[in-house]
Amino acid sequence: MEQTLLEVSHLNKIYKRKGGPDFSAVKDVSFTLAQGETLGIVGESGSGKTTVAKMVAGMLPATSGSLVLNGQAMESRRSKDMKRNIQYIFQDPVSSLNPRLKIKDILAEPLKLYFNLRGEALNSRINELLDDVGIPQSYRDRYPKELSGGQCQRIGIARALAAEPSIMVCDEPTSALDMTIQSQILELLQELQRSRGFSYIFIAHGLEVIYTISNRVLVMKQGEVVETGATAQVFHSPEHPYTQTLIQSIPKIELPYFEY
Ligand SMILES: Nc1ncnc2c1ncn2[C@@H]1O[C@H](COP(=O)(O)OP(=O)(O)OP(=O)(O)O)[C@@H](O)[C@H]1O
């Protein structure tokens, strides 16, 4: 059994809405994430996937519940090292990069913040990161708008890698990209996982993506976890009627090896 890296217990999120009733977006969500594992989160739009992901990444405060990383409780004000350790890959690669910064400066930010790199050490680390994600070093001086969507997502991945995290939270990282680019980005993420051993929390609308890359799956509906288990088990013998409906909606043509 792999070592547990993250323990999420009884997580809740209530959004306060001005002039309307409060909205309970995440209800009593618990799960664990092991080192080197990919946990896929699936569920219809509005089921609370992004809210869970943002609470895990410390981008949104939880209303209640606990998050324990490497045996240490993560308080609402996280230490710099805890922030470094969980990085987020965004759905929209272009808008997630500061348009006023050159690629080298986007990558320099986490390197300066977390590792205090300067000068030549900083420069060569930026080049290494560009190599790691398959972007030519000559792109250092370009701005995000001079890159394609897929290239921007590679920079988003390099920026996350720069922090040397143990967990990457990927919130639909390929859904804004063309099909061929999607599979290239997925391959890159898988290759990086193999070489660095980090863990992913992976949200995707396309269930075939989740099927391909996840070890375990969490199925969410209206803020709750309705089913969780090993990917093959959940996809081949779903127990909850909601999961059964989700799985049946996958076009057979895309998963010819699928048994219903
Ligand atoms: N800041 C907010 N204030 C109020 N309600 C919100 C806020 N953010 C999200 N919600 C609501 O919380 C619910 C869960 O949203 P969330 O974005 O987590 O769902 P999701 O499963 O990620 O959806 P999608 O697949 O469309 O991205 C939705 O009903 C959404 O409208």
From TrEMBL:
Keywords: ATP-binding, Nucleotide-binding, Transport. It holds the Pfam family oligo_HPY. InterPro entries: AAA+_ATPase, ABC_transp_ATP-bind, ABC_transporter-like_ATP-bd, ABC_transporter-like_CS, Oligopep_ABC_C, P-loop_NTPase. Transmembrane segments: none annotated. Belongs to the ABC transporter superfamily. The keyword Lipid metabolism does not apply. The keyword Transport applies. This is ABC transporter domain-containing protein. It comes from Paenibacillus antibioticophila. It comes from the Bacteria. GO terms for biological process: peptide transport; transmembrane transport. GO terms for molecular function: ATP binding; ATP hydrolysis activity. Residues 9-247 form the ABC transporter domain.
